Amino acid sequence: MQINAVLFDIDGTLVDTNDMHVLAWEEAFAGVGAAFDRKVIHDQIGKGTDMLVPTLLPDADEARREALGERHGEIFKAKYLDTAKPFAHAHAVLADAHGLGQRVVLASSASEPELEHYIDLLDARDLIAATTSGDDVEKTKPAPDIFATALKKLPGIDPGGVIGVGDTPYDIEAAAKCGIAAVAVRSGKFKDAQLQSAGAIAIYDDVAALLAD
């Protein structure tokens, strides 16, 4: 298989933020009197507000969902964003793919401001061919919109020549809906069984292990 493009998730894949998002969501939910075990919240990380909130608060109307999403974003930005660190060799794995002539895409459900922050954090501006964020689509992962939008930014590249890299079952599912095979990393703290059942074609501990292989 010739790989012409690689679509990388960011949170939990390239940058160590999943636990931070759990805490930010926990605080946002507490603000409306809702409490969940942190593992319950963690198992929804990887989804955007549009998918995460209805799963945990199915009776919440659109206004409440949006308010919770905005509050989560405010908390995450204020308390966690500036302390987030890339995983080891996160820049190197992007540089390696770029050096092989593959189109590198950051395909994330994060907001556009967070995406811009991560591009600089990863020192990736000269390496990436395109990006997608949660602001670009109607529905976030596990809906296919994020990856479908990314494909539209790669004219002439067939999904069969594209690989996705992500840390959650939702990355794997979203890629599969676009005909894209996906590799999973364990750095987002999802169980192998969850990643395998979603359809991951391989699982690595982290992007450093992926790079080494």
| C-alpha Rg (nearest Å) | 16 Å
Helix and strand composition category: alpha/beta
Residues in helices, as a percent range: 40-55%
Number of distinct helices: 10
Task: Give me the strand/helix succession.
Answer: EHHHHHEHEHEHEHEH
Could you tell me how far the N terminus lies from the C terminus, measured between alpha carbons in angstroms?
A: 16 Å
The strands making up the biggest β-sheet line up spatially as 3-2-1-4-5-6
Characterization of the model:
The chain is of the alpha/beta class and 213 residues long. The protein is 44% helix and 13% strand. The chain is built from 10 helices and 6 strands. Strands 3-2-1-4-5-6 form a 6-stranded parallel sheet. Strand 2 (103-107), helix 6 and strand 3 form a beta-alpha-beta unit.
Top keywords for this entry?
213 residues, alpha/beta, 6-stranded parallel β-sheet, 10 helices, 44% helix
Write the layout of secondary structure elements.
Blueprint lengths: L4 E4 L9 H13 L7 H5 L6 H8 L5 H18 L10 H10 L3 E5 L4 H10 L6 E5 L12 H8 L9 E5 L2 H8 L4 E5 L6 H7 L3 E3 L2 H6 L1
Helix pairs in contact: 1-4, 3-4, 8-9
